[in-house]
Amino acid sequence: MTTGFLSRYGGEIAELTVEHLWLTGAAMLFATGIAVPVGIWLTRSPRWAKPVIGAANVLQTIPSLAFFGFLLPLPWLGERAARVAIVALTAYALLPILRNTYAGIRGIDPAVLFVARALGLTSTQRLFKVELPLAASFILAGLRTATVTCVGIATIAAAVGAGGLGELIFRGVASVDNGLILAGAIPAAALALILDAALGLLELRFRIPVADTEP
Amino acid sequence: MLYGKDSRGLPGPRRGPLSGSVGLDEGFVCELRRKIAPSHRVRPYTGDEMAAAVEFRNVSFATPQGRLLLDDISFAVEEGTTTVLLGRSGSGKTTLLRTVNRMVQPTGGEVLVHGKSAGDGDLIALRRGIGYVIQETGLFPHFTLERDVAVVLEAQGRPRRERIRRSHELLAAVGLDPATFAKRYPHQLSGGQRQRAGLARALAAEPRVLLMDEPFGALDPLTRAEMQDMLRDLLARFRKTVLLVTHDLDEALYLSDRIALVSEGRLAAYLAPGEFLEPTQPAIAAYVRAFHRGERNSARAVDLRGRSGAGPSGDCEAAR
Prior knowledge:
The structure holds 2 protein chains of 2 kinds.
Chain A: H1 2-44, H2 49-61, H3 64-71, H4 81-106, H5 110-118, H6 123-154, H7 166-174, H8 178-206
Helix pairs in contact in A: 1-4, 1-6, 1-8, 2-4, 3-4, 4-6, 5-6, 6-8, 7-8
Chain B: H1 26-33, E1 52-62, E2 68-78, E3 82-86, H2 93-100, E4 108-113, E5 116-117, H3 123-128, E6 130-134, H4 145-149, H5 151-155, H6 160-173, H7 178-181, H8 191-203, E7 209-213, H9 221-237, E8 241-246, H10 249-255, E9 258-263, E10 266-271, H11 273-276, H12 282-298, H13 314-319
Parallel strand pairs in B: 3-8, 3-9, 6-7, 7-8
Antiparallel strand pairs in B: 1-2, 1-4, 4-5, 9-10
Helix pairs in contact in B: 6-8
């Protein structure tokens, strides 16, 4: 039965997995592109931190199905379901990346930043040579949380016709076919786990060893 | 030789009733005097203001809340000499040090570095031209020592080969074998090794002025003494104008050509170490006395510094 099922759906599962990855990947790219610079800016103007992070938090609380629904009637966005999905997923990914970028940079030992200034590093040099490398594992941790969340939420994007593994799940629910539901759910879960592990490894690589321990 | 009056006006041990009028323990003062090392400079202090490497002119600093941390401080530091800014915690000595590389902008007066005001001009160039060492935590946790030591050269965009060469050279100069230490990270070092690396970094861009903020404050007494010796050796090799902040009178006497005593934001005294122990001013006597009390309380059984300049301690026993 299993072999029959796979030979029947295998190709489709592979195709939808790629689509699922594409939706998530594009959203993560946009979210990182927005949240990291905004997070850096917030460390420079901390009085904006509360309202901006608060706004990202509000985005996060909108039920995903409703969010997709809201975006659908919008002029350019609504033309393609994939656009709707990517915008919504981007919005969900903002908070963890933003929060971690901000907290990661703010959490750097003030003495290190002080010395970087006192030695005559320009503000750009301080950002790229000191602040971002020291906050990198934090930022990656945020990216990882966001990725896992988005892989899950992307399954719902199928409801507006954006494709992805959610399509199998919705079809399975509609036809009360558990096999079909699992055909969507298992690859989606596996995808989340694999990405989580991969980003976890990357995060570890950037982790800064703790000072003040006698060798 | 050691008890003769040397180029820095160091008096002999029995010269008159020592500071009797201000009531200092003569035995203790004698012990302190032994800590003044014989001068290691080629040129004694001349007080020639034209050669001032750093000059404070009526420097004041008030916090935005209006607290006055520095109050009208004026003195000149001669090129190539070591001046210790001595004072209690909160006296303003660190704030004063930071006006030199404009990490603190004075609210009144100005600081001249080699004749040019530190208050205007290129801030980045000013800071890169001044070496800076702080207590303990100053190394970048994500840099190898090799990279950290040459970070100012990296910021200046110098070629990689030159940076590596220079940083290996300096690591060797501060007693860290490059073959062992070049690829190490700060967390793999002891406190003393970290301070050595910090000092190497401060020297990398060949600054003429070196600022040191309690550089040995977090070290155990043995390592501390070792580091003080190393600093003296280094300064004998590379001629630098050094401003060093400490609250340790021993350290001040051992390292300085001049001591600037800072008390409640004011310059209480600016004297050569030998003169410092002839306290004609109550502020100095008060500091020496307070330090004495602290020393007794810390109950140091052994004098860990067997390297002081004077002869057998029997001389001091006689003074008691």
